[in-house]
Specification:
The protein is of the alpha/beta class. Helix content is about 15%, strand content about 30%. It is elongated, with a radius of gyration of 31 Å. The longest helix is centred in the last third of the chain and has 19 residues. Helix 1 runs parallel beside helix 6 and helix 3 runs parallel beside helix 6. The protein has seven helices and 30 strands. The structure holds adenosine monophosphate and magnesium ion. The site of magnesium ion (MG) has 4 residues, from loops.
Amino acid sequence: MSAAPQSAGVLSFEQARETVLKHCRQIPRPPSEDVTLLQALGRVLAGPVKADRNFPPFPRATRDGYAVRAADLSSVPATLRVVGQIKAGASIDRAVKAGEAAEIMTGAAVPEGADAVVMVEYTSAKNTAGRSEIEIQVEVQRAVSAGENIVPVGAEARVGQEILPRGMRLGPAQIAMAAGAGQARIKVYRRPHVAILATGDELVEVSKTPGPFQIRNSNSFSLAAQVTAASAEAMRLPVAPDEPRKLATLIHAGLAADMLLITGGVSMGKFDLVEAVLKKLGAEFFFTGAMIQPGRPVVFGQIELSGLSNGSGKVRRPSDPGPIEEGNALPGRRMIPFFGLPGNPISAMVCFDLFARPVLDALSGAAPARLPVAKARLRKAVKTKTGLTRFLPAVVSSTNQLPANQEGGIFEPEVEVLAWQGSGDLLASAQANCYLVVPPDRDSMAAGEMVSIVMR
Ligand code: AMP
Ligand code: MG
């Protein structure tokens, strides 16, 4: 084993978050791979996407109506001669001259000579029997200014311009941009693999019937779901009993991944062995607790792979390897970050969101996303104690009636803390769509106060 076991302290929420973010900056970028555009949804761009042409590539009409010369409409109503009809995807091979207009549809190319589009609503078409042929005319009732209802060539992006930067996570809007730039396939970073290890003698697998004093292992599923939702690859290990050797064997197995999430066994109880076993394996600890609730016992650190390797650079397989596979991890990674998350279901979920998610972002090649914080008005007073930053499961929704002061109308967000039975209350967690943040110096928050929430 290399580094001597280090102990680290219990940090404030801000210090713990900063420690995590500092560690994220040291994580190297993962290797990349080429995938189809839709497979890239949720993944992180490994190189910039550039505009392959101007956006828009032609002056685009944003309304159905008539392409005109604004100067012709200095006094209205004005009658113009209609010289053609332009559908989206087409144009006409002549310019619009003084006194002329071309009927045009939304998305079509505005012809030369025209410098504005007047909406069809402000026009009336009329056929006039001319001397030699039927002439189509339009009467325009409203003036337009030059440029109105036209997006000029390249106004959204110029050819060659970077439209999506490396390191950006691809949501539906980014996928649309890449599609517009002709990227049928796209280069993204490889997904990190995250091993999930639930510990505790009381746990049985979900498919088994628990004995009278046993509970089902739900944390492996909540964490696997959170990992999957973050577009990473979750690998669930078999449940580890509260027994040091078996625990060590399964932690070994977990180190074949890029990050290890352990739940349970990090509190102060007699059978909370995770920290001691990690220490024995040479782990370095960045913190061994955070002044938060839920989640106070959370542990964050890293283990150097070489100390545990069988010489081939791969982690030794345990006698019972479970569902984990060797060689999945990103090549070249020596330091494996780990979290010891409290076993309480809500604590585990909150700690993932607050601390593990940024590391997962970094392992995915992205800059860690900021916490999705928002402000809302507190519906009912909350009483707590000072000393910890609290993240209480809550529901935020928009008010459906005008508040007394009329400000904000029906869209003002209102938040209400759920009645919960403590960190083990899965039902409260399942109903929550955010957490109310109670700062450590507050023992109460009044109804009507504007408060911070973290969305989930
Ligand atoms: P621990 O952190 O090991 O002290 O566990 C705290 C509480 O969380 C206990 O009530 C455990 O039974 C419960 N718990 C621990 N691990 C899990 C798990 N994987 N799924 C559901 N509950 C758990
Ligand atoms: Mg336990």
